[in-house]
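Problem 12. The chain below contains 256 residues. Write out its predicted structure in token notation.
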Amino acid sequence: MAFYRGYRTLWGQSHQRVDRNGVTIWLDRTSGSGFKSVKPYRSGYFGTSIKLQSGYTAGVNTAFYVEAHPGNHDEVDIEFLGKTFDEPYTLQTNVYIRGSGDGRIIGREMKFHLWFDPTKNFHHYAIIWNPRELIFLVDDVPIRRYARKSAATFPLRPMWVYGSIWDASAWATDDGKYKADYRYQPFVATYKNFKATGCTAYAPRWCRAATASPYRSGGMTRQQYSAMRWVQRNHMVYNYCWDSSRDRSLTPECRM
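Solution.
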């Protein structure tokens, strides 16, 4: 879909440029920018192609995500964490459940260094969300599957789709060691090729949820599982379930 058919400016309108192909947003010393879908969804496939800025972008967070807000919000993130000159971007996937991002941070992060340079060309990033699972994809390759193991650890409320760029210097790059340096402003990201399909919050109950494959079961194929294992074996750099410093009682799905 064209940007204007599916999304509206949420904040930082002066730091946003819309054209027929998509939207460019940027961060400088005065502001960042963000946009939001015109409809909430209760399941779906949500994707966009993004090209990131090269060079020094430490402290900058460029994101595409779905969120139920306000209140005890649910959130599912694809975030690009800015980098220093000699380091690659980190793609962070994250899941927050029932307000676990509101002060009492209980993130469910998996991080990756991609098998390509995301500043050279556009690549497609997507989230599949249905009542059974979340799947994160890069160029249609699944990189992470987050299964519904209980209602307490899975987002079930209707969510909107968002994109944004903002200053996350407190934590984004090496846990906040490197900050946004506005000598290199503006920090720019371009989004295009927007896709959103599935069940809106207003759809009838019989609306069929988006799935990862055409199988009757809707589950991932053997080829998709194999591709995901390859990504996680070769390109995953952090998995919250393997972090011994974390309180495992807060993430019971890691033990299921």
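Discussion. The longest strand covers residues 187-200. Students who got a different answer should revisit the alignment rule from Section 12.3.
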